[in-house]
Amino acid sequence: MKAKLTSMTEERDRLNVSLTIMTRKLDKLQSLSQNLDSVRDLAAELSTMKAKLTERLQDSNTKLTSMTEERDRLNVSLTETTRELDRLQISSKQNLDSAHGSAAELSTMKAKLTSMTEERDRLTASLTVMTRKLDRLQISSKQNLDSVRGSAAELSTMNGKLTERLQDSNTKLTSMTEERDRLTASLTEMTRELDRLQCLLQKESQNGVVTDPPAVLVWEWPGSISDSMTESEKTCPAGWRKFSSACYLFSNEARSWDRAREDCRQRGADLVVINSDEEQTFLFGLLINQDTWIGLNDRDEEGTWKWVDGTPLTQTNWGQSQPDNGGGYMGEEDCAEIRKYFSDWNDLSCEVSNPWICEKKA
Ligand SMILES: [Ca+2]
Ligand SMILES: [Ca+2]
Ligand SMILES: [Ca+2]
Fold it and tell me: What is the pLDDT of residues 32-47, one digit of tens each?
């Protein structure tokens, strides 16, 4: 029984220890259970929170979507606005350039207009001057034309005269050539005769016959000055030519009419006065081919011609259309010259340099 008791005591102790442990475990479990409730509460709270957050998130998503759409619309709008702005900028720049260009063009056109106005004024002035000149030229050219017609007629006359003279000269040349040939033949014959006579004389003197020597034969060409100078001409001073009862000097130089007359007066003479056809023929015959001053002028009264010695002008030998007093465009012509080419007289400006003829009594 004791053993049983011991064993039962032991058994009881063990059970007590076990009970203690179990009590502790129960406490722990109770504590754990409390914790579990708290966790369950927390979980419920969390669930509520999650639901709320989910709701907000959805709101936010919705808002985000609408804002994204709004942004996209705004972006599109911005792009369009930017394009419009670019267009406007380009357009306004063009407008500005165009405005600048227009201003410059306007300025240029104004300048051109001013310059054209000036040009027009100048041209108008020029036209007026030209019109006056034209009027003068028309008057002058009509006068010139008349003069040229006169000159043409003179030239035609001159040509006729010259042709005639050339024919005369040719005829004279031919006859002179024949004359020269005859004379040469004659000279040859006379030379032979002279030789023969000299030969004969020599023979006779060798034979002792004394005779006078023959006169020396001198040959002169006909027409030389010394031969043609007549005995009466030799009463004029050296270099002067005699005709009728007067002496004439032909100058070797050319001077104005006044200086020519001065030269004659210093020689005790005056410019030649042509009193007759014979005297004129004589003068033309000795004249060289130049226009030559004579003692005739119309200085005192235009158109009234007077000889230097007061002799009245009874006969004249004016050329065609002369005296013309310069034809209205050559200046006054108040002094007279004789013209070899035309065998006539012409009035000329007294200042022209011409050769001249002096005349004085023999
Ligand atoms: Ca005379
Ligand atoms: Ca005159
Ligand atoms: Ca004249």
Answer: 888 888 888 888 998 9
